[in-house]
Amino acid sequence: MNQTPTGTPAQPIPATQHAVQIVGVDEIVVNTAKPVDPVGPTQLLLQVEACGICFSDTKLLHAFETHPRKVDVVSGLTPAQLAEIPSYHPGSAPTVPGHEPVGRIVAIGDAVEHFSVGDRVLVQADWKHLKTARSNGAFGYNFEGALQEYVVIDERCVVSPDGEEFLLHVAEEPSAAAVGLIEPWATVEAAYAASERQGLQPGGRLLLVADADTDTAGAHALSEAAGCEVTLATADGLDLVAGQTFDDIIYYGSDAATLGELGQLLGLRAILNVVLDGARIDGPVQVDVGRVHYDYIRYCGTTGSDPAEGYTWLPATGEIRAGDAVAVVGAAGPMGLMHTMRAVTLGSEGIDVASVVATDLNDDRLAHLASEIDPVAAERGVKVSYVNTGEEQLQPGFDYLACMVPVPALVAQAVELAGPGGVVNAFAGIPAGTFGEVNLQHLIENRVFLFGTSGSDVKDMATVLRKIEAGIVDTTISLDAVCGIAGFDDAINAVMNRTSGGKIMVFPQLHDLPFTRLVDLAGIRPDVADKLADGRWTVEAEKALLGR
Description:
alpha/beta; six-stranded parallel beta sheet
């Protein structure tokens, strides 16, 4: 086994390292003597070059052992196999966060087949073949992440049984910051590329809710064709199915309170289809907006009497369409910048939008956003405008709205701002169990698709890699600040308080570098600031920072 890092000169692997650890709810420690784990036969040791901080890290911090990705892995690896992995820390065990890294493999076990010492790799953090009770095993959650200098990864975690690899090989040329920023950009790609169901779940569980005298022949025809297991109920008899979940619910009715109850019976990736038959919903409906994002629940329906019509208008994906008038709500944050830039550059993918409106509550943040977006928009011929919604309200009629702000009321407002056939992308991660009052009457009448997604797949990362290589996007435009391990507390607070103007990149090998925004580098590291290009990160700036 090779346990000497590659590079010139070669450096021996130390016995201990600096690391960030979450040890309890809202409890972070910086451990300056955390042991570097030994490498077993099926494992590899990754030396971390850089790792981004994500808002999802704050969710782990606040939830800790109750986070659905921090609990025990229940399938995919046996308990005995999991016990062989020193970086597996489920439940209340302290863990190292950080799921947006790039690093280099510096040691491998004798049984490792897919990777070699010297490989530079990007980690896809969601290991979906390893299941927890409500999610999956994940790097930076129940498996230690990259906010440390070295981390052990088991090959059985990053190569699925069907051969999919969750470590992507990357070239030497891009800066570590550019590669580390691929993961958040990939979650943006995933939000548009994820496949949507456009009919009953084949062989799934269907709850059919209707009064005894209602003609439900259409629903029964659909369920027969799909081979569904059907449970019948009336609106005043839902106590009989309390605690159960269903893949689909077809409701013949218009009572807002009943719709709120039915929403809580939706299982993972389930759809509630409302058959109004000429009636009108009698008020806003309590919708678990967090579950729209994390559990992929969907709402559809028809003003007529045929439930099939409710499914027909669901799109195959949440992609923006040619000619769409797009609004990005909360666009001046780091993720909003990515969504806005993606919309502006969609012409390279054959999708020319009609216009883009970017909103925020702060004129300075909007001005910074404009400085990044306008040159690209002018080159592409895309009309972009900026709106401070504290001073000017958006007008209804948008074809596509992407919401970056984790506030249910803003998601509900976006539904009403959508015109006929509109799409609302609830991108911001609102915790499951968080409800908003949604106008489902408007949604159904206008066939507005409300959806959300969480995380990304390997293919989404590959898409971003391709766009970097083709010069379509520069991921470092979203980089606002850098730090070492010592600057993590200030960095995570900037994320929680939303005071950062973009993404933050941690370089774990730099123990003492404080949290430093790029605009302030001149006063702290003038040698690095001199190598920025119009304030943007460069390979040369990174080399200067790392003393190379």
